[in-house]
Design a protein that fits this description.
Number of strands: 0
Number of helices: 10
CATH superfamily: YgfB uncharacterised protein family PF03695
CATH class: Mainly Alpha
Order of helices and strands: HHHHHHHHHH
Structural class: mainly alpha
Strand content: under 5%
Distance between the termini: 13 Å
């Protein structure tokens, strides 16, 4: 069991720096914001494929970004550090701490949880074959709350039914932290 106090967390200053750099880039080039990048990295680490920070750059950002070389180096270093924090949480076996409220109710535009889940599902779809190779039905079951929260599948009838019931929506979102650990164990259990 991991000592949760020993998890290598980003400092408040590092989180703010990463958040601001990603937010500025998202505003300029419609790339992933902090929550989407966090979700994307979480899925890459949860899944069965070896983590590579270059996958984040390839999927989360346009080919040309507005980052200066120094900013790009800072973002890369902070994403690598964030990946170590996420990996430690996955290894801990504790419910995963999604970095936002577990609700889609937000009056200020896109809820951070939707952005986080969209980032997560983007990584799953990138590596879909590997994710579903071991037990497609079980993986789909554990992915369902994240799929729902992402908004990427809102045309599916079962998603619309959940959307119409705010209590059910909140219950579905509340299942995400447990689902992440279950997915991680299912996809990596034999390797640990």
């Amino acid at each position: 069991m991991t000592d949760l106090n020993s998890i290598p967390a980003l400092s408040e200053e590092e989180l703010e720096t990463l958040g601001n750099l990603l937010e500025d880039e998202a505003d300029r080039n419609d790339s992933f914001d902090f929550f989407a990048v966090h979700g994307f990295i979480t899925a890459l680490l949860t899944g069965p494929v070896e983590f590579d920070v270059q996958d984040v750059w390839d999927c989360a950002f346009d080919e040309t970004t507005s980052f200066t070389p120094a900013n790009k180096a800072t973002v890369t270093a902070l994403m690598v550090k964030l990946s170590k924090e996420i990996q430690a949480w996955l290894d801990s076996g504790q419910d995963f701490p999604v970095p936002t409220d577990l609700s889609l109710m937000d009056d200020d535009g896109e809820p951070p949880l939707e952005s986080w889940a969209m980032g997560f599902m983007s990584a799953v779809l990138l590596q879909e074959e590997a994710w579903y190779a071991s037990n497609e039905e079980l993986i789909a079951q554990f992915l369902f709350p994240i799929m729902y929260a992402s908004g990427l599948f809102m045309d599916e009838p079962e998603m619309a039914d959940i959307d119409e019931d705010s209590e059910l929506s909140d219950q579905m979102c509340a299942n995400i932290p447990v689902s992440i650990i279950e997915l991680y164990l299912q996809l990596n259990g034999a390797n640990k």
